[in-house]
Write a structure and sequence with these properties.
The complex is a heterodimer of chains A (74) and B (572).
Chain A: H1 3-28, H2 33-43, H3 57-73
Chain B: H1 2-8, H2 15-22, H3 25-46, H4 49-65, H5 74-84, H6 92-100, E1 116-117, H7 123-149, H8 155-184, E2 187-188, H9 189-211, H10 215-236, H11 239-243, H12 248-261, H13 275-287, H14 299-307, H15 309-324, H16 330-341, H17 345-355, H18 359-387, H19 391-401, H20 405-415, H21 417-431, H22 433-447, H23 459-465, H24 469-523, H25 526-532, H26 537-564, H27 566-571
Antiparallel strand pairs in B: 1-2
Classes of the chains: A mainly alpha (74), B mainly alpha (572).
Chain lengths: 74, 572
């Protein structure tokens, strides 16, 4: 590994380390963020779930809806 | 088939044909994907079948027996709870797979927390909670016995027994929740991760050998891919980054990009940086998660919001990209359109693989989706609350428009419990569309020759061009949907949704997608990525499509839940 390449790697690494906190700070300024983060923490939600099976709440939601619609039939 | 006949007849095998057959990632994705799925079926369906069906029958009998009693007894509460939590992933084999496939966990400051943590619940706390519950249980039993002796004619006694049972149930629920949180927080990934790395590298290296990457070379390179994948998953679980919606996908790409664009991807890593190989296996596994039995979970309104609006938005956005924005790459256009209209990153992966999009195009779609979702998941529910929109309408709107499932659940929860349930269910129904869409995209791209508008293709040519892994993807979905349907909602959930899918395939799929994103990062350079963004057309496409999506979904949700089926909205 040449010194130039290593320097470049460090540069990118520091750029990332500077950018991320800035993005996090910007995100925290969005209207409603406080309530949003409190809800996520309280309900233990996986914000990054890509598919329904990655998020446990989808299973309980389906059961909740199913029971509500069943009540309707009864 | 010729290859098989040649072997049977003792003829000289057409070497080029057989070589091609085993040198295609699509076939290996199907072979390995189905090997995993069959393993899942064996351990999560066949092995625990009699035990789980027997438990269900026993619990049903308790519920039925106690129906004559004018209040809900503790036994009934217990039976209902057990029935709700019935799952084949609670078996010994299920727990073993759960341990092996564990991914890094949530952490705030100390990254080690992501890999190792012990329970912080003391023995005394558990004992105290258990004692309180046992006392309440005994009291409820006594009261129920007294009420039984009086033939349930004493209303005051019935009321008291009912209240104590209900109190016991509430206490039990919170006790179980706390216990689960404490025990669920106990993990040691330093034990499981090396095992998983060895297990996956050996299995994947078999396919790699046939695909020409080399058995040993693949194993050596895979060790680096695995380490970067673990780092990406850890970063995606960091509290602040997690709340921003920046999951492992973006980190895997970012770390890979930084390495490849600075020190360069080492030659010994390259044999294992096989994006298509991982993506296609991951997609075959994803097929098992597409259970068509779920599409009517919220009745017709949900189906209209998720299954009518989505394809319309997808087609119109694609048309807009081709005709108005004049995006030169059809695969970039369809990947962004699917990503924005269906379900974000997972749809982008499926659309990109089906349309044979480049790694840069997939990276672009994933980046756009993550940035927009990050903002929309906070702003949208705040805006809906500000407008005072009903929770059912707001939940349906969020479920149909936000890209990723996690963001939908978080945004729905922000609005309220009903919004959370509606949003999560709508998103789940929309998720099921991914299989159909991937199939049509694959067919469309296979049947259209580049540069020719109406090209009639011979079936053999179409077959050659068709991405075969899509058949594995569709096949897995059909098999698992059938199993789910045949077992009915309770056992279907126990064996398939809560069993094979959530206990096995989804964890495995997450690992494969992560390896794919690491491989993308390691093989893409900034210049080619920047070239994709020239003129900002992908951004315009995403924004225009999302505006249409927001308007159409809101209109459809309002028409369905408040004009055509208002009784469903009332019940929810």
């Amino acid at each position: 590994m040449t010194t130039g390449k290593f320097k470049k790697l460090l540069m990118y690494f520091f750029a990332l380390c500077l950018t991320m906190p800035m993005l996090v700070m910007l995100h925290r300024q969005l209207p409603g963020y406080k309530q949003f983060s409190a809800t996520v923490k309280d309900k233990d939600i996986d914000v990054n779930a890509l598919f329904y099976s990655d998020e446990p709440h989808t299973a309980s939601s389906q059961k909740y809806i199913r029971s509500k619609l069943k009540e309707e039939h009864e | 088939m010729h290859f098989v006949f040649d072997i049977i007849n003792g003829n000289k095998v057409d070497n080029s044909y057989s070589k091609n057959w085993f040198r295609q990632e699509d076939y290996w994705a199907i072979i390995l994907g189905f090997s995993f799925l069959l393993t899942g079926i064996f351990f999560f369906y066949f092995v625990p079948y009699s035990q789980i069906t027997h438990t269900k029958e026993t619990l049903d009998a308790i519920i039925l027996e106690e129906k004559e009693i004018p209040f809900v007894t503790v036994q009934q509460y217990e039976a209902r709870e057990k029935l709700k939590n019935l799952s084949s992933s609670n078996t010994t084999a299920g727990k073993l797979f759960g341990f092996l496939l564990n991914t890094p966990k949530y952490w705030e400051i100390n990254p080690i927390r992501s890999l190792y943590q012990t329970s912080n619940t003391t023995f005394e706390t558990i004992e105290e909670g258990q004692k309180q519950l046992t006392d309440l249980y005994n009291k409820a039993q006594e009261l129920q016995h007294e009420a039984d002796l009086l033939g349930y004619q004493n209303q005051a006694l019935n009321k008291e027994a009912s209240e104590v049972s209900l109190l016991w149930n509430r206490k039990r629920e919170s006790y179980n929740k706390a216990l689960k949180k404490a025990h669920g927080a106990e993990y040691n990934l330093f034990n499981s991760l090396p095992l998983l790395a060895i297990f996956l590298s050996l299995i994947l290296a078999i396919g790699a050998q046939f695909l020409g990457y080399g058995f040993k070379k693949f194993i050596v390179g895979f060790s680096a891919i695995f380490i970067i994948a673990v780092l990406s998953l850890m970063l995606g679980e960091q509290e602040s980054l997690n709340y921003m919606g920046f999951g492992y996908a973006i980190w895997a790409i970012a770390i890979g990009l930084i390495i490849s664009n600075t020190i360069g991807t080492f030659s010994w890593i390259k044999p294992a940086a096989q994006t298509e190989y991982y993506i296609k296996i991951g997609l075959v596994l994803l097929g098992a998660e597409i259970l068509f039995g779920k599409i009517l979970s919220i009745g017709l309104p949900g189906l209209f919001v998720a299954w009518i609006v989505t394809p319309v938005v997808l087609v119109v956005t694609f048309w807009f990209g081709q005709k108005i924005l004049k995006i030169t790459s059809k695969s970039l256009n369809i990947t962004i359109s699917a990503d924005m209209s269906v379900c974000g990153v997972s749809a982008a992966i499926a659309a990109a693989a089906a349309s044979k999009a480049t790694k840069e195009e997939l990276t672009m779609a994933v980046g756009l989706s993550m940035v927009f979702t990050s903002v929309m998941m906070v702003v949208m529910p705040a805006f809906i609350n500000f407008l005072g929109m009903p929770e059912v309408l707001g939940g349906a709107w969020i479920g149909g428009t936000l890209d990723s499932t996690g963001a939908v659940v978080a945004a729905g929860a922000f609005m309220g419990n009903t919004a959370l349930q509606v949003a999560a269910t709508i998103k789940m129904i929309q998720n099921m569309l991914i299989g159909v869409i991937a199939f049509f995209i694959a067919y469309y791209f296979a049947s259209k020759a580049e540069g020719k508008k109406s090209f009639k293709m011979a079936p053999a040519e179409l077959w050659n061009r068709f991405p075969k892994f899509v058949l594995g993807f569709a096949g897995a979905s059909i098999i698992f949907s059938l199993l789910y349907y045949l077992e009915g909602p309770v056992l279907g959930d126990a064996f398939i949704d809560q069993g094979i899918v959530r206990g096995f395939t989804k964890n495995l799929r997450e690992w494969f997608f992560c390896f794919a994103f690491v491989s993308i990062g390691l093989s893409v350079n900034f210049k080619s990525l920047r070239a994709q963004f020239v003129g900002g057309k992908p951004l315009f496409l995403y924004v225009a499509g999302q505006i249409l999506n927001l308007l159409l979904t809101l209109l459809m949700a309002w028409v369905m839940f408040y004009v055509v089926f208002p009784e469903i909205a009332e019940k929810l």
